[in-house]
Amino acid sequence: MEESLIPKLDNRWLTWAAFVEETKRVGYLAGPMVVVTLSQYLLQVTSTMMVGHLGVLPLASSAIAIALATVTGFSVLLGMACALETLCGQAYGAQQYRKLGIHTYTAIFCLILVCIPLSVLWLNMGRLLVFIGQDPLISHDAGNFISWLIPALFGYATFQPLIRYFQTQSLITPMLKCSCASLIVHIPLCWVLVFKSGLESIGGALAISISNWLNAIFLSLYMWYSPTCTKTRVPITMELFQEFREFFHFAIPSAVMVCLQWWSFELLIMLSGFLPNPKLETSVLSVCLNTITTLYAIPHGIGAAASNEKEVVDYVTTMAPLVCVSVILDSLQGVLSGIARGCGWQHIGAYVNLAAFYLVGIPVAATLAFWLHLRGIGLWIGIQVGAFTQTILLAIVTSCINWEKQVCHPFSKSCIILQLSCGCLCSCQRFDKKNNIGWINLKNFN
């Protein structure tokens, strides 16, 4: 469990055999994590697909609601939970196992507190949509849908810190089993709530809420009763309140970096509501967004299941080439963004995302959609211009990294972050008790 992913470094270029071996090691963890992440997102996709069978209006309103829920809630909680990648990684790397459990409890408590004002906002989301000029019918249905997602918000606040807790210790199997189990339960549950209970579109939201809590409950039970968590399992005490300041110190910049990118894509759904025929445009944009999130593995299935409406399916077919471009750009920026976070340059990543999407992508999208009348296609082209700009800027940042300095300088922040980012796979080689930090001396690794 503490085997290093980083091979022994020397002055020679890495050989092909070393590259293949390193790829296997990374893939051993990355493969299951892809399944975990995809299983979580498929909860929303499944609900959207089933609600889509009810018609264009339910699909459009649920798409708006999920987009708003992501922008104002889920992305914020996910970004803040990323602080544990630093805090838990440091604690585990320094073999301060008790600290790992305390950080996790602190994060859960802090995120639940954040959920309270977010819930108030969600309860008034329908009126807010009407106020900013959205279609009244879509606004009303979207407001009802997002209100039933409030329990999902609290479940998500509990679930995301637990994910980091297990990830830090390389305990991938419990996450994989719990996520898949929740998805398996979610599919028939959503079908019953949408089509058999009379709740219709609201049933899709309720199914997401129940499944999110199932994820949190499954992982909590594993944490409390599994012998693999013995070292890091601690009782809940008042000590968790002492960690508030440190948690928010890392949580706020992490949330900014994540949210700036997420918001730009979800803003497309919002802008589509101002186009002519907003039901059609919003439905198509939601299908395309779901498609790129699932890496275009099931685009036809999503497009066909999202509606019985031939117009929607035909429009999605027209957008398919642009979606393919999105998949390529998203793959590149995902790797480059990970490198920036690994080097402790979240603030640089935030500036890059701000410039790429909000100074370039969104203005281009609005110009193409509303001024040149390209509608949804214009919105999608614009946001991909932003994604291309982001990829170029992150590539430039990556090319400027001094890798030897990153991994070898013992007191550099980025060196510490490298240790923290892989803290689930390796332990500190040295530890500074005075400053409560640990770092890696890579030359000691075999």
UniProtKB/TrEMBL annotation:
<dbReference type="InterPro" id="IPR002528">
    <property type="entry name" value="MATE_fam"/>
</dbReference>
<feature type="transmembrane region" description="Helical">
    <location>
        <begin position="246"/>
        <end position="265"/>
    </location>
</feature>
<keyword id="KW-1133">Transmembrane helix</keyword>
<feature type="transmembrane region" description="Helical">
    <location>
        <begin position="348"/>
        <end position="371"/>
    </location>
</feature>
<keyword id="KW-0812">Transmembrane</keyword>
<dbReference type="Pfam" id="PF01554">
    <property type="entry name" value="MatE"/>
</dbReference>
<feature type="transmembrane region" description="Helical">
    <location>
        <begin position="377"/>
        <end position="397"/>
    </location>
</feature>
<feature type="transmembrane region" description="Helical">
    <location>
        <begin position="201"/>
        <end position="225"/>
    </location>
</feature>
<keyword id="KW-0472">Membrane</keyword>
<feature type="transmembrane region" description="Helical">
    <location>
        <begin position="63"/>
        <end position="84"/>
    </location>
</feature>
<dbReference type="InterPro" id="IPR045069">
    <property type="entry name" value="MATE_euk"/>
</dbReference>
<keyword id="KW-0813">Transport</keyword>
<feature type="transmembrane region" description="Helical">
    <location>
        <begin position="175"/>
        <end position="195"/>
    </location>
</feature>
<feature type="transmembrane region" description="Helical">
    <location>
        <begin position="145"/>
        <end position="163"/>
    </location>
</feature>
<protein>
    <recommendedName>
        <fullName>Protein DETOXIFICATION</fullName>
    </recommendedName>
</protein>
<feature type="transmembrane region" description="Helical">
    <location>
        <begin position="105"/>
        <end position="125"/>
    </location>
</feature>
<comment type="similarity">
    <text>Belongs to the multi antimicrobial extrusion (MATE) (TC 2.A.66.1) family.</text>
</comment>
<feature type="transmembrane region" description="Helical">
    <location>
        <begin position="315"/>
        <end position="336"/>
    </location>
</feature>
